[in-house]
Structures are given as C-alpha cells and as structure tokens.
Amino acid sequence: MNTRFAVATHILAYLAHAQGQPVSSEVLASSAGTHPVVVRRLMSSLREAGLVQSQRGAGGGTILARPPADITLLEVFRAMRESDPDIFQVGNTNPNTQCDLGGVMQATLEDMFGPAIEAMRAALASITVAQVMQELAKRLPGTCSGASG
Fold it and tell me: pLDDT tens digits for 7-31?
C-alpha cells in the first residue's frame, strides 16, 4: 500500500483543520511533504469515495464532503486500496504447488492472517477524522492558527 493511506489521512485532517475553507493541492502537498501531483491523485480517489469535494475557480480548492466525525479511517483505507483486497499480498505469491509445503502455504497464511485483517478493519472503522483531529490538537503548538500549513 506504500504511503497513500497515511498521506490521505493527513490530507483529510488538514481539511478538517481548515474548517470548510477550500485548500489547494499545493498547500496540502507542502504540509504532507509530498508533490502536488501525488495529492491530486489521492484527491481523485477520495472524491470518488465521497470524502472530499473540489471547488474550482478563484479561491477554489478542496473541502471535506462530510463532517469529520462522519468519516472513518476504514473509509479512507478503502479509498486508498489497490484493486487487490489482499492486504498482506498472500494472493500475489506464487508458491510451488508441486511442493508439499508450497501447496498449502497460501491457504494457511490466509487462514492465519484473516483475524488480523478483520481486527484492523474493526479498529479503523472505530476511528473518525474528528478523533484524529482530537489527537492532533494535543500535539499542535499553541501558535498554530487556522490552516496555515
């Protein structure tokens, strides 16, 4: 999955911090420490998932499509997922099925990783962008004002 989930969460937290003020991809990229093109690609997925809205024109940018308390990290995770639902990429391995161990390895790992995947999904479903903001607020310096990057 690389860093897409973490950067997408950063973007949504920044938009929540902006409190409805449109934010450009350049500002978001600067805050996340990445390139604006990367942010625009992520925004496309977030927009398709119904998590953000774009406003064009002067003063345009991106805003949250819903209140931060209504956006879970599971939704963000799913929006950032590649088409393959195999989080541990077990299905992408190619063990030798002629080998006794290789023939049963994939099914064994899928059975063992299943509970971990479900636990992760449950944990992400229980965390909202608003909760991320609460945790960030504990760490924000007193001088941080608005969404000034």
Answer: 999 999 999 999 999 999 999 999 9
Taking the whole predicted model, whether its pTM rises above 0.85 is answered as no
116-137 pLDDT, tens digit each: 888 988 999 999 999 999 999 8
Quick one: three-class SS letters along the chain? CCCHHHHHHHHHHHHHHCCCCCECHHHHHHHHCCCHHHHHHHHHHHHHCCCEEEECCCCCEEEECCCHHHCEHHHHHHHHCCCCCCCCCHHHCCCCCCCHHHHHHHHHHHHHHHHHHHHHHHHHHCCEHHHHHHHHHHHCCCCCCCCCC
The CA R_g of the chain, rounded to the nearest whole Å, is 19
CB 128 within 8 A of CB 68: yes
Closest CA to 97 of 110, 88, 108, 106: 106
Return the higher-pLDDT residue of 2 and 59: 59
